[in-house]
Amino acid sequence: MRNVIKEYYDQNCEREWKRLEDPYARIEFFSTLYMIKKYFPENGRVLDIGAGPGRYSIELLKRGYKVSLLDVSDKCLNLAEKRIKDLGLHAEEYICMDIKDLSNNICEEYDAILLMGPMYHSHNKEERKKILITCKRLLKKDGVILISYINSFGVLKAGVSEFPDIFNSLDEADKYLGELKLSAQEGFTESYFATPNIALSEVESSEFKVLSYAGAESFLSGLGDVVTRHYIENRNIYLNLLKLAVERCEDIQFRDATEHLIIVAQK
């Protein structure tokens, strides 16, 4: 993975920790936990790839899983280790490397894998395929993987309120109707966006069996300002919206137009 991505996360590890505390981002967080509870085995070893500062690893550890964290950012892993130890929890390993560089000798070690970042930071299709093939090798028979992509359609929708300047040109807006590769200057860092069909095809071409997929923000996608206002003004409305969005995140009428796509597949 390119140095620019490592540098971004090294510089923003505290921000990444706090990001999922945002009222809108918590929809993504709880939808992901919902999918983990629904599709992961009840126990076993989990590899959290793109673990960042450890938000999901902590939740997995609380649920009794044996967890190893892998990330390109040593600063994020250091923060994760501190937060995990502060909670009296223990992770198996903290591995600082690009998943593509992991030894070929490691096979069928994990019952489940979280792949939450690498697929939306690689412009190269062959690199993304290598990531998926590596994960397949690491999983035990019938192991489950949860894969996150950034969804072009959802980003287009969010752009109406978050970065409306793209709509000054229809040619610019049209770019969000397919694959989109952004440099570090164009996006939050170097990033790759894909439509659900492209992402699902990529996973299936690596010989995974897709079990389901969800839209992390559900029917609240693109409504960050409104969701935050409800959080501030009426916490009951906010909590009910959060619960309903999480429970409906797999509904076909919502999942194809959210910023984050969650694909669940099996070896």
Automatic annotation (TrEMBL):
Q: Which Gene Ontology MF annotations are present?
A: methyltransferase activity
Q: Where is the Methyltransferase domain?
A: 46-143
Q: Name one Pfam family in it.
A: Methyltransf_25
Domain of life assignment = Bacteria
| Record Gene3D superfamilies | Vaccinia Virus protein VP39
Record flagged with keyword Iron-sulfur: no
PANTHER family, A to Z: CYCLOPROPANE-FATTY-ACYL-PHOSPHOLIPID SYNTHASE, FATTY ACID C-METHYL TRANSFERASE
Protein name listed in UniProt: Methyltransferase domain-containing protein
Natural source organism: Clostridium cavendishii DSM 21758
